[in-house]
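Notes on consecutive records. When two proteins share a document, each keeps its own sequence and its own token line. Never mix them. Below: protein one.
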Amino acid sequence: MLAVLGPAVLGSAVLSAQAGAPYPPSPVITGIDWHWSTLSNAAPGSDNWVITWADDEHQYTSWGDGGGFCGTGSDGRVSMGVARVEGGKTGYSCYNVWGGKNPENPVQFSGKSYGILSLHGTMYMWRCGSGSDASAFTIQDLYKSTNHCATWSATGVEYTPSHFDGADGFFAATFCQFGRDYADARDAYVYSYAPENKDGVWDVQIPGEITLMRARTNLIEQQSRYEYFAGFDPAMRPTWTTNINARVPTFRDSTNGVMRTSVCYDAGIKRYLLVTQQVDRHQTENGHIGIYDAPEPWGPWTTVLFTNCWDEGLQTGSKTVYWNFSSKWFGPNGTNFVLVYTGKGADEWGTLEGSFVVSELAKAPYPLSPVVTGIEWEPASNIVRKATGSDNWPLTWADDDNMYTTYGDGWGFEPKVETKLSLGFAKVLGPATNFSGVNIRSATGEQTGGGGSGKKASGILMVNGTLYIWVRNANNSGEQCQLAWSTDYAETWTWNAWKFEELGHPCFLNFGKHYAGARDGYVYMYSPDTPSAYDETDTVVLSRVPTNQILVETAYEFVSGFDGGGVPQWSTNIAERAAVFAFAGGCNRMDVTYNAALGRYMMTMRSRAQAGGLNQFSVYDAPEPWGPWTTVYYTEQWEGGPLSTGNGGWGEVAHIPRKWIAPDGQSFYLVFAGDDAFAVRKATLTVSIAPQTETEPPDQPTGLSVQ
């Protein structure tokens, strides 16, 4: 046993070196602060130190070529051993479980391991080679232990050169770590990574390629069930193959190469962290560390750190060996971490605390979009504001090529109406660069009353020549919602008698002109899961109704959950509704539009901390109306200052009008209620796919009529 009680006292540093990195800078992790005073070392003479967090609350780590804890490079030396690490990051104890100096159990075989995993109470270990020799490139096999590393047995999963056609294959396989005993896993798969062998020399392999493979958690011992990453489809979704020779690298660096690698998921910041040796493993040859992050196990990768290890202060020995982050020792928000590695000196156990410097995107509830990888807003000075003194502005694109909208608590466009309305109507003519607004008077639709005491529209849609609006504040006390419709372009409105008492701010999913390009024969409606239009809540629910039954309450179906394949299940019982989007304290005013060129559903979300929730504005996207959602944009600021909790800045709600999305989907004009106006601001997107440039399809009437 070795007890590690106190850290060495060193300096501190903040790094920013990125020159020569193969990927662009991370949009989430903008720097690292190493807490040098926390550096602790032990087990001189032993290296590697791959680590996992097990079901018994302890961590288990594998070392190579030494005696492990309390041993030296010669005392207790084994080719490979396993130790148990008990306790917290500032006062842990270490025990040799399998091999090494005074072990609890003798070693059974030799080799090296760069991947160890606790999975539902069973330990798995990738072995690389059968000793400290060239077999590291010729044997990669999987072992398991059902007694917390006391004994190991082969699973039969084994990769040798015979498996690979026309290539040398991969080596030094490692697991992606997900929390305690794999508790935070993204799905029912175990993910493994392995660098490709390029020259058979035990050093950084150039060009650098890392293979990604996976197996279901219950099939990890069946090699025939392994799948290999095979690239992306046009929508940037990963594809998989059971043909190992059709594999495609998930990570590439043709200049700097790769070698021994670790990968873990940081749940606090929702990023996968990949660490690898680069350039060379020796100090004399400019040995580098590369740390990269991604929103998914397959990328897209961005650079957190790429730098010379000795310049960074991470190493003092002659070579680099291995680095990984401890899943157990991440802080609650994911910014604080402990690096477990071979160092600072040559061949020794090292732990070093640090913290990530993160952008606002780290606060978003979902990982970054794999399709929309960036968004740039035109300067605030270019914002066009009309209809000052009015807010809300949901929009739909009608069959007459105009957009129809509603406003709240105001007088509409110039010339303004004479009476302040809680609910008024207008149409918007022309392109975003030269539009005009015309008020529409309606004796049957207009409402009065300020704030929650007056009805206001939160969603609008045209389908089958009829305009529909979802109206919030239906009880004139800021709660419930009600449906109304018009067959004469908003001049006359009929009101449904029934209400959804459970939902307070519903919106329609808008497709193209007159509902052209809809995914099916349904109309979709979202709402934060609360009766209030003003209180922030934690989730959003989704319902659908056939286009010819929009006025029939019993025809509405609500997502009630998802099956094992992520397919939504539907129920006509609103009490069985389930979340399709979750953001603690961040769900309030929202809208959703389909960007057809990108094949993505785009959601805007605004919450203003009116009921103890968050004050933020964000944009999300998904391949289906129900998700899975990813983050396009997140901010708690307006032009460098704090975001207003009132109607300033991003206002109280925002919309992406389908008519004002560019044909290639790579730009749009946001309409938002900033400063109580019809405010328009252009956004330009950076995308990772080839957009399907649209020509506007003809109207697609369903042939169905209003009930």
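Protein two starts on the next line and is unrelated to protein one.
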Amino acid sequence: MSDESLPQRFSRHPLAWLAAYFAFGVIVRHFCETGFAIPLGFLVGLVTLVAISRVTAPAIVPMLFVLLGVLALQFEISGISENRIRRIYDEGRIASYEPVEVEGVVFGSPEPAFDGMLLVIEADTLRFKSHDIKVAGRVRMFVPRSDSNAANEFEQLNIRYATRIRAYCKLEREEEFRNPGVPSRKAMLDSQGIDAKATVKSPLLIENIGDPQTLMPLDWIYERRQVLISEFNRIFTPQTAGVLIASILGDKHFLDGRTAEVFRDGGTFHVLVISGLHITFIGGLAVWIVSLFSRRRGLQFSIATAFLWTYTLAVGAEVPVVRASLMFTVLLFSLILHRRGSQLNGFGACVLVLLVWRPSDLFTPSFQLTAVSVGAIVACAFPIVEKLRSIGRWMPSTTQPFPPNASDRLRRIDRIDRYDRFSLGAGPGLHRDGGVLDYHLDLEFGPGEGLVLYPHFYPYVVPGWFDKALRWRRARGPRFDKALIIAPSPELIARLPGGKIPDRDDFYRLPDDERMRAWRQVLSESRRMGDEFWELFSTGRLAERLQPL
């Protein structure tokens, strides 16, 4: 369907607009306390308005998705149940650092650290002062392995994905002193989906109380990751292993402080965190490898996304990684549809799904950076690339000075410095005022058998503006094999007023009458130069004056 045949109010990317309306609703709820009554009241009003009048969908749908955004954030805020661990500690029913017994299931796999292990527990029971409390939420525990005895004790527990354990510890959910502008400790824990954290003093305080009921593929994935971490630590130095484990396997706990500080000072610490950069690279690499064996886009999509989500699970499936993988999957799927506008539409679908999943992520720097960067690529970079591809491969020539598919607007702009016939009677061809680009044209002058006549101020060409002060920087080589530079001799320049070629400084340095008098003298010398060139050309003696560049 062509653009002209589309209805005037038709949008090629409706999901992008719906995501924007939904996000606006989330923002409204974030800054205004609405509860459920106000948005539900507006929703009833919209339904009534549609029933009694002929209000069209373009007027109703935006308001509907704004209300849905308000309700989504309200549900998330109200959805924190009374038995949620974060709420129990925030309300002071149990104070931080009070000894408790946590029971639950291991989420993911035990994470090796520099001198211990990290566990994330899906807790369901807290024992506090001999009372069992049914709870919900995730707890992150650090188990030290400072010596061989502690390491052996932890190994004997045989803890892996979905193992049910009981641990005696002191849960912590307290603010800490942080530099200005840094998010609070509680906000950071909430963004990671963690309700509280704890340090278990010894593996002896942990009890394995149930065999894992898990799918074998996940168990196999986590085991392979543990093997890779062990191999990196065995083969490489601690500093190198720490960087590789962080950047490839998503475990930052092997980084030493000095190495981490070097990356921070260089502004490249994000390389050590699994993020959209890694996901895009890995997903693109997977697509490229599959494309070497098959041109079927459906097969490329299936294999690449299967590998990408396996990697996402292996590195811990943290929220930013899942978000990046989801975006890559949806955008890659939009590419196999062969429909214009589908990429921006796919981006809108990604944002909409992510905000429905976790509306509060809209206010996190991670989500904002992902949305802005991917949105800029999809909405700006991709259309520019497609436009350039539609123009096609083209080299300017006398018969085709413009790209074959160039728009009339581009042709009008380009005619500022292109002419089909020179005003002084030159034959048909492509004539360009070099000053529009640069007076020193170090360019490819195109194919053909003729010569390029290049009138210039000097008998040399400077390749770049910053090379003017560098006398050894001169343009030479095959580009000028067919170029004939016509330049005044040093003797001619010495006869000019001030012994130089006029420039823009003369407008500030000289009175008008003196400047015009000097300019007339320059014109007279230029005519003499032109007459000499014509005489050499007409008598066949031009080669006598030619000099190599």
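For the record: The CA atoms of residues 70 and 516 lie 72 Å apart.
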